[in-house]
Amino acid sequence: MELGRFSLSLTIAGIGTLTIASMLIWLLLYEPVALAGALDQGDLSVVAQALGTALLKTVAALFRYL
Length: 66
Fold this sequence. Notes:
Layout: H1 2-30, H2 32-41, H3 45-65
Helix pairs in contact: 1-2, 1-3
């Protein structure tokens, strides 16, 4: 019964983690130079911008599909 209280929050956290992890894998495969340069310089704004762009493109593609 105790796990029932946390199931919704665990599901939301799991979906968020899965989304971010898949976007980081996508960046590693399709933009390795930008990702490596950003991590080397410690500038994570480039990574955040690339993740935001990937998320925006994904949402736009889903809306076009629907």
